[in-house]
Amino acid sequence: MGIFKKVNMLSKGLRYKLMLAFSLMTIIPLLTCGYIISAYLFPKLDDLIDVSIVILSSVAVALLGLVLAKKLVDPVIDMAIETQIIASGEYNGKIAVSSDDEIGNLGQSINAMTQKIRSNIDELKSYGQKMKEVNVEIHKKMLALSSLLQIGDIISAGSVQLDSLLEFTAEEVSMVFDNGFSVLYMPKAEGGDFVAKTSHNIENETLRNLVIKPAGPGIFRKIFEENSIMVIDKGTKLSREAGEFMSSCGLKNILAIPMNSGRRNIALLLIGTMLDDYRFKPDDTDVIKVFARQITIAIESDILHRKAKELTIRDELTDLYNKGYILTRLEEEIKRAIFYQRPCSLIAFNIDGFKKFRDVRGELAAEEALMRVARIIKENTGPIGKAARIGGDEFAMLIPEKNKKGAAEVAEDVRKKIVSANLLKEGTANLTVSCGVSENPLDGATSDELFRKAMDALKQAKSSGRNKVVV
């Protein structure tokens, strides 16, 4: 059985066919030799028929060997051609297999290898496309991160006004998504309705004109109450109210993020895309949260800056306005007085002998005296007047709607109250003040001129005996 199998395999093998072809090809010279021998050595066999039979037999055997050799060589040639095509990068071809010998097995192996290469290439293309998409997302995230860092630097530096910073942030946050847009809503007044503060890539005026009531009816009330994010995209099942809102505003998807400072609602960031069937990814939401946090920090920083600015116009010890503020207000009041042809006066005060008082009584007593004098001056400014500390022991009072005579009466009243207040609390001895008064337009048409005239009158009061008012 084993021998028969080997013979069977040998009969189907290329080696057997090659041996058979070689044997057939060698018969031709053997027959030729036989003919020569029969013709020349044995003349009795020179009959024409015998010669013809020998020749025809030789030709037939040669043709048979040629056909068999061609049958062996052609598949090899075809396989070489297909292999060259595959080597050039074309993997869609296939070698035709017509036999089950070594050549057929080789063709099947090459076909299998080509199929595997084609599968690997398709997988690489798919992987390449995924990598391209990942790179695009990474690029977007890097741009978003760069924008966040830039916004953070601007907030830290405090070199840009809030409105400009919010416009820049709205533009940058809209670029997180393809064909994205953004609208930032802020209250018109503290605790009031929200209106569009800034927006980017918005074509629908409905969003710009939208008025949001954080505590009123609407789809945003819940997210303000819970300080949560609202996501509406392809995977969201819309309520009737949400569907009506999206339809009326011409929106396809949105992210709405409320912002608050403490318990106070300060802004609402609304972003989205105009792409159909879009679904927000978790990392998209995370990035937008960071932008929202930056906006919150910017708004809070602006609030603190304005409060700090308000504090800088006041004297820390006496809580009166400082010199810079009172001169600015004086300039504004002079313009108003000129326009309406009304009077405006300035009073300058100086505590008499205050340096000696500080040296004798000490710093704490001096500060206490300054605060009590400041309190008396402030209480007498009237409903529209302004009081300021303009120096160590000097004060000023801005009095709109009063001429020099009326201002002098106010100054005299203040002087008497300071005397009667008995600030030293030591018998009859007490602190006193000297006063100088100037009026617009008699003494000048600018704040500097009025201030200088008031200080000149104050010096005159000091040099002429102190504790008096000089006009």
Please explain how this structure is put together.
The chain contains 14 helices and ten strands. It has 471 residues and is of the alpha+beta class. The strands form two sheets. A five-stranded antiparallel β-sheet has the order 2-1-5-4-3, covered by helices on one side. Helix 2 (14-41) packs antiparallel against helix 3 (48-87), helix 4 (102-157) packs antiparallel against helix 5 (162-174) and helix 5 runs antiparallel to helix 9. The longest helix has 56 residues, at 102-157. The protein is rod-shaped. It starts with a helix and ends with a strand. The model is unreliable at 1-12 (pLDDT under 50).
Using DSSP, what is the number of strands?
10
Radius of gyration: 52 Å
Mean pLDDT: 81
Query: What is the first-to-last residue Cα distance?
Result: 143 Å
Give the H and E element order: HHHHHEEHHEHEEHHEHHEEHEHE
User: Order of strands in the sheet with the most strands?
Assistant: 2-1-5-4-3
Approximately what portion of the residues adopt beta-strand conformation? 5-15%
User: How is the main sheet built?
Assistant: 5 strands, antiparallel
Helical/strand content category: alpha+beta
The stretches of 5 or more residues where confidence is low (pLDDT under 50) are 1-12
Helical content class: 55-70%
Number of helices: 14
Shape: rod-shaped
What's this entry about, in short?
This protein has 471 residues and is of the alpha+beta class. Helix content is 59%, strand content 14%. A hairpin with a 4-residue loop joins strand 7 and strand 8.
